[in-house]
Design goal:
By secondary structure, the chain is mainly alpha-helical. It has 7 helices and 2 strands; from the N terminus they run ααααααββα.
């Protein structure tokens, strides 16, 4: 009987140690994920939603990585922002990459978001400026994914080029033409100004 009790206590202690080890590994992964999102520009609200870390822990990690306090204020909650010409192009590029990461690549949740945004950075990095960064911020990209999950946005196929573009959900798609195939009047001037500024900076 005493031997059985000893075995039971030993088994319980081993189970506790295993749970502690799993907890440490889980926390390390969450810290690594939070650090990656901070480097990509995530706001504190995003970090709180996507990890199980405390606000204090995340704020400390943010200051350590960015050398500044987390910015305050509301998140950019605007579906219509993604419909304007240049943001729509960048949003569409990002979401096409995100769909691949969450589908063919088999990634899930914030990991798919992080890898998709890195792919967007690699592809569209030349379109950003040192002062303003890329058109689509990480926090806006995160918010856009939530808009898709809430069925507020969906992808439309352009009837001219066949590309997939972000658009308001539940609108007629039969005659949809993207902003690249139907450029707005000032689009060319804006692109030229951006490229000229980059040449001057170089």
């Amino acid at each position: 009987m005493a031997v059985q009790r000893g075995k039971a206590k030993s088994s319980a202690k081993g189970s506790v140690r295993m749970d502690d080890a799993k907890s440490v590994v889980r926390e390390a992964r969450e810290i690594e994920l939070a650090a990656a999102m901070i480097r990509l520009g995530a706001r504190l609200q995003v970090l709180l939603t996507e990890t199980g870390l405390s606000r204090e822990r995340l704020s400390r990690l943010y200051r350590e990585i960015r050398q500044e306090s987390p910015p305050k204020g509301m998140l950019p909650f605007s579906v219509d922002w993604h419909m304007t010409w240049l943001p729509n192009i960048h949003s569409s590029v990002f979401y096409n990459i995100y769909q691949f990461m969450a589908g063919d690549a088999g990634l899930r949740g914030p990991v798919a978001l992080v890898e998709a945004y890195r792919g967007y950075q690699d592809l569209m990095g030349e379109e950003g400026t040192p002062e303003q960064g890329l058109v689509l911020s990480f926090t806006r990209a995160w918010m856009m994914v939530r808009f898709f999950e809430a069925d507020m946005l969906q992808m439309f196929r352009c009837n001219s080029c066949g590309g997939q573009f972000v658009h308001h959900a539940h609108e007629p798609a039969e005659t949809f033409v993207c902003g690249l195939c139907r450029l707005p009047p000032r689009a060319g001037k804006r692109l030229s100004a951006t490229r000229g500024a980059k040449r001057r900076q170089a």
